[in-house]
Design a protein that fits this description.
The chain is mostly helical. The protein is built from 4 helices and no strands. The radius of gyration is 21 Å and the shape is elongated. It starts with a helix and ends in a 5-residue tail after the last helix. The model has no long low-confidence stretch (mean pLDDT 91).
C-alpha cells in the first residue's frame, strides 16, 4: 500500500473516532512538530556533538562488536 492510499484510509478512519482519541492524536501531532533538540541540556547537546565528531572521524564501533561485548547479558 502506497503512502497516498494509507493517508486516504487514515483520513476515512478519522471520521469515526471519538473525541478522546481525537485529542490524543492532536497532542501527538503537536509533539511531533516540537523541536526536541532545543529542549536538551547543554551537556546533552555537547555529548551529541562529540558523537557526531567521532562518527565524522570514523571513530565507530560496529554493532556486532558491541553485541559480542554484551552477549553474556543478551
Amino acid at each position: 500500500m502506497n503512502l497516498v492510499t494509507r493517508k486516504s484510509n487514515f483520513i476515512q478512519e478519522l471520521s469515526n473516532i471519538d473525541e478522546s482519541l481525537l485529542e490524543k492524536l492532536e497532542l501527538l501531532v503537536k509533539a511531533s512538530k516540537k523541536d526536541w533538540y532545543s529542549e536538551l541540556s547543554a551537556q546533552e547537546k555537547e555529548e551529541i556533538e562529540i558523537g557526531i565528531s567521532q562518527a565524522d572521524n570514523n571513530e565507530l564501533v560496529s554493532h556486532s562488536a558491541v553485541m559480542d561485548k554484551f552477549k553474556k547479558w543478551h
